[in-house]
Amino acid sequence: MDTTRGLPVGCADFPYIRQNNLIYADKTELIYKLVTKKTSKTPYFLSRPRRFGKTLLLSVIKAIFDGRRDLFEGLAIYDKEFDWEPHPVLRFSMDHTMADTPEKLEHYIAMRLQSLAEMEDIKLFGELPSANFERLIEKLNAKYKNGVVVLIDEYDGPILDHLLNKSLADALWMKLKDFYGTLKKCEENLRFIFVTGVSRFVKTSIFSGFNNLRDLTLEEDFANIAGFTTAEFDSLFTSHMEETLKKLKFVKYFREEATVDDLRSRVMDWYDGYSWDGKTRLLNPWSTLYFFVRDKFDNFWFESGAPNFLINMIKAGELNVSDFHDNSFINESMNTM
Question: Cβ neighbours of residue 289 under 8 Å, at least 6 residues apart?
């Protein structure tokens, strides 16, 4: 399917994307499987690199539980059996805390809880964030009587920023564990939980209260829930490829007789390097979109998505990159991280 829809560069707001006819790779078939399962109270976890579509995924899930069926016309979930009943949704982005002390992290969480409570005319009483979190969930479920949805983006953000400072990382870890532990206490008042992050190695300990936490990171059925598959790329970017090829020919980047297939091959060389099932390859969405905006090949993901904690570890001599050269890691080793 050809399309001339706009490019959602730097945009992870699903309602905005749909209302402005921007490109969206339909992941709602996979999301539908999660939100309708009899075990949908199972907390879900997904690890992906930064700038790989996790925030957009949570925005789509929020729109579903907000009952915004109008946003999904033409997408896989639109005609499926679903009640589209609005649910109270609590969404947290832990990558935006700017917390370099436990106190700042606690203050950020407290302010976010206060903001969410005020939108629902619910009063909080200044207790610890975990106590207010529990109160907010209980009050929302009592108000709507259909279960609260909790979405946590980049759950590990505050910790990853300070991995080389073990005492600080441990202190932040304790604050987060206390906050997230509230979800186990509120299980009867919850409808759906989805957590995303960059790392898997912190996940087990922080969410140790959830014996049934389902990690989708390496599950084949959900390997393509974020990012562009090659089929999605071919369907969504045909017109953009043709226009970009003309521009690149104009600046003599490509020879005059070059075709869209030549350009496609180069795009795949640069951005088609991800796979979580060992079968289907995915294009990095951030880099792919920026390629079409800037009309050149570059490491766009590194500008804002680079894992600073790894760079800092390399600079500090904590990690020898040569140890990873020509080595491969199997699923079993991933599951022990």
Answer: 7, 8, 9, 10
Total count of residues recorded for the chain: 337
pLDDT tens per residue across span 58-94: 999 999 999 999 999 999 999 999 999 999 999 999 8
This prediction's pTM: 0.88
Choose among 231, 244, 333, 282: nearest CA to 48: 282
For the chain, how far is it from start to end, CA to CA, in angstroms?
A: 41
- Tokens of residue 226, six digits: 């974020």
Task: Tell me which residue of 161, 53, 184 sits closest to 100, measured CA to CA.
Answer: 161
SS3 148: strand
- Per residue in 103-143, pLDDT (tens digit) is 999 999 999 999 999 999 999 987 789 999 999 999 999 99
Count Cα atoms within 13 angstroms, Cβ side, for 171: 14
